[in-house]
Specification:
homodimer; mainly alpha; Multidrug-efflux Transporter Regulator, Chain: A, Domain 2; 60% helix; disordered C terminus; DNA-binding; MerR_fam (chains A, B)
DNA sequence: ATGGGACCTCTAGCGACTGGAGGTTCAAGC
DNA sequence: GCTTGAACCTCCAGTCGCTAGAGGTCCCAT
């Protein structure tokens, strides 16, 4: 019992790349582990658990600050879990906003793509729609709400 | 006719910030305009049109390389617009992939959030689900397909 | 003893901007 | 003509969540 894990072991066990694990450490998400005489990182079970936690939360799309909050909460069992609820609901709301925006985009894009029947670029309706700036700039709340977020 | 527009005029007309316009110029998306004696940028109608084009394409979520391609196409009317079709359909496919992933996330997250009835963090089911790394790391295609994309 | 894979640190880069510092120019009002 | 102050200029750093590479060291099996 209590034998240590290399960073590679941890990477294989969790599916998080070694470089990313080191980055988590630098960011303070994962505590710095013990080192071997030669300077290699030597992890224990607690690290494995914590890294798994981080990975799950990332998979669910939680942003880094939210993950910090959840980790903090997880290590203080006497606190109220209302915080966790709040973080989770905020994340759901964020996802819903992105879904609405993406669905709107998809609809408009499909309409645009359907419009053009092929031929020379000079008559392409896709290009025409894009070039038409008569619409003025967009102020509708759907776009404003999500902003530019790497859609 | 032919009076020039300042970068601020262009920004107001298109809704693209002045800093972003300068950045587009540095990236080669927008040709460098004439300058006043004092060095201020002096744009013409062509710039306005091109910037509007870029903005529309960004609003529809096209990535930068796709926009370059579309701009290139738009300035060569004799070419085949099949390229534009291809770019648009690829963009729709990308959006669909993101939608599927987001919908899956939303479902799982809602399930997780609903599970916990409140109380102390030590018994919080949200935290428990996140901490449970017994699932091993995720290899299902839905997650693999989209990767980490700022969801 | 040696080979080669895993590990180390440090730095830079991704996409698509955004913000700030520190300085110059323009246009309107007096 | 002069003053003000808003708008403009360039350059650099930061955003988010990693990822990749250079250049070197360590560990372990043969």
């Amino acid at each position: 019992m209590g034998q240590t894990l290399s960073i590679g072991d941890l990477a294989r066990a969790t599916g998080v790349k070694a470089t990313t694990i080191r980055w988590y450490e630098a960011e303070g998400l994962l505590p710095a582990p013990a080192r071997t005489e030669g300077g290699h990182r030597a992890y224990g079970e607690a690290h494995l658990g914590r890294l798994g936690f981080i990975r799950h939360a990332r998979e669910l799309g939680f942003p880094m600050p939210a993950i910090r909050e959840l980790l903090d909460l997880a290590s203080h069992p006497e606190r109220d879990c209302a915080t966790a609820h709040g973080v989770a609901t905020a994340q759901i709301a964020a996802i819903d906003a992105k879904l609405r925006r993406l669905q709107a985009l998809r609809g408009e894009l499909a309409r645009v793509a359907e419009a053009c029947g092929g031929g020379r670029a000079g008559e392409c309706l896709i290009l025409e729609v894009l070039a038409d700036h008569q619409h003025g700039h967009c102020t509708d709340p759907l776009h404003a709400e999500a902003g530019r977020e790497g859609v």
